[in-house]
C-alpha cells in the first residue's frame, strides 16, 4: 500500500493522508465524481442558453452564451461536499464570479432562488453568493462541463452542501424573503453548511 493512502480505510473510504481536516463531519472521501440528479438530464443548446438575474433588483439582465463568455473567468480550486456524504477534494472548475454578475444588477433583496433548465430550484442567501464564494462555471478540470454535471453551466457554491450548486442553471431570482427550493421543500436545510452538518430541517 502506498504511503499516500491512509491505512485502515477500506474501499472508497480510503483518503489521502493529511486530508482529514478537510472532510466535514459525517462525510467520506470520494475519489470519483458521482452524478446526482433528480429527474431527467436537460440538454441545453448554448445558442438558446441564457443566464438571467431578475426579481428584486434595480436593473434585471440576462446574458447570452457569447456575452457571458466575454466576462472575466477565473479558476476555482475547491472541495465539494454532497449531503449523501461524499466529499471530493482538490477539484477545479472555471467560471465567472457571482460578484461580477451581481454588480451589474443592483440586488435589493437579501435572498435568491436559483432556477434551472429542467425545473430544479434551490435557495441561497445573497451573502452566500458574494465575497468570492460562488460562481457560474462552464468548465471542470480544463474541459467543458459535462452535461451530466450541469453543462453548459452550473452554479458553484462549494462552501455549502452540493445540492445548492444548481446544475443547468438558468438564472437567479432575487427575493425579499427566504423561500425553500426543491430539496428544501422536501426536508433539506435552508442554509446547508457542511461544517455545521446542516443537512435536514432540524439540524
Ligand atoms: N438542476 C439540478 N441541479 C442539481 C441537482 C439536480 O437534481 N438538478 N442535484 C443537486 C445535488 S443533490 C447534488 S449532490 C449535486 C450533484 O452534482 P453532480 O451530479 O455534478 O455530482 O447537484 C445539485 N444540483
Ligand atoms: Mo446531493
UniProtKB/TrEMBL annotation:
CDD domains for the chain: arch_bact_SO_family_Moco
Gene3D superfamilies in alphabetical order: Oxidoreductase, molybdopterin-binding domain
Name the record gives this protein: DMSO/TMAO reductase YedYZ molybdopterin-dependent catalytic subunit
Lineage of producing organism: Bacteria, Bacillati, Actinomycetota, Thermoleophilia, Solirubrobacterales
Residue ranges of domain Oxidoreductase molybdopterin-binding in the record: 39-183
Record-linked SUPFAM superfamilies: Oxidoreductase molybdopterin-binding domain
Highest taxon in the source lineage: Bacteria
Location of region: Disordered: 1-24
InterPro entries in UniProt: OxRdtase_Mopterin-bd_dom, OxRdtase_Mopterin-bd_sf
